[in-house]
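Before we proceed, please read the two lines closing this message. Report back on whether the structure tokens fit the sequence:
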Amino acid sequence: MTNGSIMPINPKDTKHPELRTVLLFCLFVLLLMVAGCGEEKTPGTDRKADATADAAPAARRPREPLPEGIVWQTNDTDPVFASPEAVRGGTLHEALLSFPLTFRTVGPDSNSSFRSAILDNQLSLVGIHPNTEKIIPELATHWAFDPDGRTMYFKLDRRARWSDGHPVTADDFAYTLDFMRSEHIVAPWYNDYYSREIERVIIYDDHTLAVVAARPVPDLHLRIAFAPTPEHFYGRLNDDFVLAYNWEIVPNTGPYQISDFEKGRRVRFKRKENWWAEDRRYFRHRFNADTVVFTVVRDFNLTWEYFKKRRLDTFALNLPEYWHVKSRTEVVEKGYVERIWFFNDTQQSAQGLWLNLDREIFADRRVRYAFAHAMNVEKVIDQVLRGDYYRLEHGFMGYGAYSNPEIRARRFDLGKVEALMTEAGWRRGADGIWTRDDRRFAVEVTYSLEEHTPRLVVLKEEARKAGVELQLRRLDATAAYKKVLEKKHDVAWMGWSTSLRPQYWEHFHSVNAHKPQTNNITNTDDPEMDRIIDAYRNSLDATKRAALSRQIQAKIHEIGAFVPTFMVPYVRQAYWRWWRLPEPAGTRHTGDLFDPFGSATGGLFWYDPARHAETEAAMKAGRGFEPVTRIDETYKMPSLR
């Protein structure tokens, strides 16, 4: 997901390509091995018999009359992005670096990366088109906005069904509020969000409802168009929820469902026969694999060996070493495995060096600017990253009109460092490091990924030429995360996950400064910044919000507490040639070309049995094919062309 070392992660976020390589390992090593390895499980076998003994569904909720004058909207005209050549069949084999501690998506131990495989098979009321970013149907076929700015109406698809055959109704959305607000799920964040941000769900009939936000908010559909919860399955919750549902296979609405699993070893998903939405415009020709199997391979390097031996079907090659060196192997050179470099145009992680402004050394803006000019990011890109990565100009690239194209990151410049530090009253010491009042310009950089050490070593060596000493401090992921959130760092080497729109209040508003456990890790405390952020949060006008967003980015650059480093606006993958991809291979927002489930960008690939047989025969005979490396620049960022 990011090249940084500390990553508050949106579980459904797949836009950042290193999520499926080294960083995925760092996330999973935090999980403990579960008990009962090797025990075969099928859906329903672990559920406590008494967990829902009194869990009869609530009485039918009252219906209200539908207001007059509602102007219904839909979207059945945006371009489709799947290939009509796609056919169904085959089994996709993927790797897990650790088995999840639970299949619950809320409550203790639920926030593992595997959670996205479950959530991606649960549709929401509406979705976002991955190329146009317009609203498109999911469970709702039509929607409407109330003039109050906080109410949205929905008409459900009457064909929508849970995987156990029950119809999806408006009551399932009302039940979501009961479920998410319940103390029994042991999920304080969800308790708070669904209580504070969502006021209520109004039911007009079984297939018509409204969701009311607590206050008018911009991009209302991004806040309130949530997924349903199967009331007929859960019923009334009790204190046994966490244990009773730890390994339960909950009914869902998407194309796949877990069919069986073996704790500690594997999880198998099967595509539903006659899925209710398979002929819908934006789902047609997608989700083609019959089966998806996730196998636990606890060592990241071993996954590459599994892939070469055909035990896995795809492998991410985003890391330069894999693309340039390790993929010089027989299966690639003989054309049995194909490679693709697919550029996307999506939100980029705010990756870089985050300065703690509560540290005295960074109180002077000139010193912060000098620090930025002492970071030779371009040399790291050229020498360590083989020129594959791109310079991140600021922390919010890839957000369309919400991004400021005029901002350019400060470049390595010894002359500017000299001028700024001299003006600020610093002098070079005997060892060449800047000093003032017996204080040396030496700061500690906190990070966690060993794979990033070569990058930081180059920065350290180059910074010394500029008179700045970087003291590299690598901690395990948990310790690094804790240190930074407690604001005990000098400089944090890290990146944040993204969302469809830039988020500023959490990271740059003074209300979150000078206190632990907030995301304002720079302790930015600027009245003008607060004013613009407040205006951005309160504005309901998209054009004004985009303009305010660009102003905020300019202000962040002016303050100089964030030094942007790299971005990876593409995905590189290797795959056995019997898997096929459309043309173009993905969408603007694709972060994984072989994502099997994602409702927005997943399931575009398909299995070709004829090519499989052809490949097997060629391998047996020692024959090869022309090597294939495909470079797809259809959605390459305009600024990079």
Notes: The longest strand covers residues 198-205. The chain is about 25% helix and 20% strand.
